């Protein structure tokens, strides 16, 4: 279901740069409580949905360096702030994303945080379903939101009062039982909702008058704080929910668009470098761009003339995938530079590219492929494991700790790939067909 209503698209950002918001609702105590409830363990993954300035996602990534943290928000301004604050944190990725359409694979994360976002959603069921989709069976959701623990009509009055200050969207103060019901219908088993009051000290005279007109002052505990400023008491609800459903982990039906694979051509060097740079954003490589990109500015010498391969994937005119292999010795080659555009990860494109590279490697006499990928990218590690790669050791790529993988190629793989129509022939570019199957995030190195 699509709930990106125009009111949500036009959300005004009243939080990212608001020091009062941070001081009141992102305290050290809030951060520590959420970290405790998330109970992150090394190797697990977390998605923070509606991450805002990223305070919680960043605290989680710092607190558990062996976890992979994804942070999504509907606002560019929030994501820009989160990315700036998270610079250098290798295990955090922030990108624009809506609660009802997260760019993550089904059953791919262990924990989800959904804090102070629910009251911005007109159709919370779409977000519950999406959270349930991306969480692994047994995965944990920590949901916290302002709610309506008063008389039923008061939620609407409060929303209307908020519109006086910020007319970009209505707020939806759901009843705690309503939230728990919605989560249960989406396949979660829920803790008893926990409610407690919070102070909202930003009411101005005309807003106070509005509340008084609607007889809401008593239940909301409206009180003067200083000349021109009033306070009310809001109510938080928190629910810890476990994903009780064993979901079908095959990607949902979505309109997978055909990707054309072609052999590298020098005219695409710039977009290829841009795709590479966006994939490694946030990594501290411990080397200069020139050092890191030495092979990418000499693809023909390093890959193609050495009986290796380097492929580029296009959707329409846009370069969305890249990757190649470099021959190390007769039957051994190294898979390198696998990159898929961020918003297309988890949709089968990584699988298409990998299969085609494996097919071409086998055809050219290669029997073993090896690769290095960043250790702090659990989803990437999972991607290679799922495709039959065995862990072979650990190493470093500059300052980035990596896991080494190896796979013995079998003829079967090549037949599979061929049967799927994955037979791109270099120039001229040929469509290699649509495919399901889950793709994977890019690796480093
Ligand atoms: C009150 S802030 C909360 C930020 C942070 N989660 C926290 O707890 O401090 C609400 C955030 O939710 C985001 N948001 C609202 N609706 C959203 C949606 N449908 N999908 C993703 N993010 C959304 C807003 O852009 C904003 O950054």
Give unreliable regions as ranges: 1-9, 248-255, 417-445
CATH topology term of the largest domain: Rossmann fold
CATH class of the largest domain: Alpha Beta
Principal-axes shape call: elongated
- What are the distinct ligands in this entry? S-adenosylmethionine
User: What percent of residues are in strands?
Assistant: 25-35%
Total beta-strand segments: 17
CATH architecture heading of the largest domain: 3-Layer(aba) Sandwich
Figure out the total of helices: 15
Distance between the termini: 38 Å
User: In the CATH hierarchy, what is the superfamily of the largest domain?
Assistant: Vaccinia Virus protein VP39
What structural keywords apply?
alpha/beta; Rossmann fold; disordered C terminus; binds S-adenosylmethionine; 17 strands; 15 helices; 28% strand; 2 domains; 31% helix; Aminopeptidase; elongated; nine-stranded mixed beta sheet; disordered N terminus; 445 residues; eight-stranded mixed beta sheet
Molecular structure report:
It is a single chain. Helix 13 packs across helix 15 (411-419). The chain is built from 15 helices and 17 strands. Strands 1, 2, 3, 4, 5, 6, 7, 8 and 9 form a 9-stranded mixed β-sheet that branches. Strands 15-16-14-13-12-11-10-17 form an 8-stranded mixed β-sheet, with helices on both faces. The chain has helices spanning 6-9, 19-25, 28-38, 55-63, 76-85, 124-134, 154-165, 176-185, 205-213, 269-279, 289-292, 299-304, 349-363, 378-386, 411-419; strands at residues 45-49, 68-73, 92-96, 109-115, 135-146, 188-190, 194-203, 223-226, 229-243, 260-263, 309-315, 318-329, 332-340, 368-374, 390-397, 400-408, 430-431. The protein folds into 2 domains: 6-243, Vaccinia Virus protein VP39 (Rossmann fold, 3-Layer(aba) Sandwich), CATH 3.40.50; 260-431, Gcn5-related N-acetyltransferase (GNAT) (Aminopeptidase, 3-Layer(aba) Sandwich), CATH 3.40.630.30. It starts with 5 loop residues before the first helix and ends in a 14-residue tail after the last strand. The longest helix has 15 residues, at 349-363. The chain is elongated and about 80 Å long. It is α/β, with parallel strands linked by helices and 445 residues long. Mean pLDDT is 86; it is low at 1-9, 248-255 and 417-445. 31% of the residues lie in helices and 28% in strands. The chain binds S-adenosylmethionine. S-adenosylmethionine (SAM) binds at residues 8, 11, 15, 25-26, 50-52, 55-56, 73-75, 78, 98-99, 115-117, 120-121.
């Amino acid at each position: 279901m699509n709930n990106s209503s125009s009111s949500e698209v036009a959300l005004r950002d009243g939080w990212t740069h608001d020091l009062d918001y941070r001081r009141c609702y992102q305290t050290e105590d809030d951060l520590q409580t959420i970290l405790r409830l998330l109970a992150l363990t090394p190797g697990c993954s977390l998605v923070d949905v509606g991450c805002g300035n990223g305070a919680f996602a960043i605290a989680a990534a710092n607190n558990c360096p062996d976890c992979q943290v994804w942070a999504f928000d509907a606002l560019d301004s929030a994501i820009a702030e989160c990315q700036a604050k998270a610079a250098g944190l290798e295990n955090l990725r922030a990108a624009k994303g809506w609660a009802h359409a997260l760019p993550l694979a089904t059953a791919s994360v262990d924990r989800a945080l959904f804090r102070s976002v629910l009251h911005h959603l007109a159709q919370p069921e779409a977000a519950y379903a999406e959270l349930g989709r991306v969480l692994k069976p047994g995965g944990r959701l920590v949901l916290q939101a302002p709610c309506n623990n008063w008389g039923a009509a008061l939620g609407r009055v409060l929303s209307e009062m908020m519109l006086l200050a910020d007319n970009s969207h209505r707020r939806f103060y759901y009843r705690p039982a309503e939230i728990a019901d919605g989560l249960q219908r989406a396949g979660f088993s829920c803790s008893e909702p926990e409610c407690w009051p919070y102070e909202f000290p930003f009411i101005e005279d005309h807003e106070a008058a509005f509340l008084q007109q609607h007889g809401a002052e008593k239940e909301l505990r409206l009180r003067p704080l200083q000349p021109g400023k009033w306070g009310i008491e809001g109510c938080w609800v928190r629910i810890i929910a476990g994903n009780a459903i064993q979901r079908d982990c095959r990607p949902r039906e979505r309109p997978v668009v055909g990707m054309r694979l072609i052999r590298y051509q020098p005219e695409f060097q710039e977009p290829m470098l841009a795709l590479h740079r966006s994939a490694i954003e946030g990594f501290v490589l411990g080397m200069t761009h020139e050092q890191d990109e030495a092979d990418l500015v000499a693809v023909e010498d390093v890959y193609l003339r050495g009986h290796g391969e380097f492929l580029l994937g296009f959707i329409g005119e846009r370069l969305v995938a890249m990757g190649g292999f470099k021959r190390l010795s007769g039957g051994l080659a190294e898979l390198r530079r696998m990159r898929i555009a961020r918003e297309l990860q988890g949709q089968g494109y990584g699988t298409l590219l990998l299969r085609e590279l494996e097919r071409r490697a086998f055809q050219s006499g290669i029997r073993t492929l090896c690769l290095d990928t960043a250790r702090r990218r659990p989803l990437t590690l999972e991607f290679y494991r799922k495709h039959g790669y065995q862990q072979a050791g650990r190493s470093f790529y500059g300052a980035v700790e990596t896991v080494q993988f190896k796979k013995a190629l079998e003829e079967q793989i090549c037949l599979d790939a061929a049967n799927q129509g994955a037979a791109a022939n270099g120039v001229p570019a040929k469509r290699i067909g649509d495919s399901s199957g889950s793709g994977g995030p890019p690796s480093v190195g």
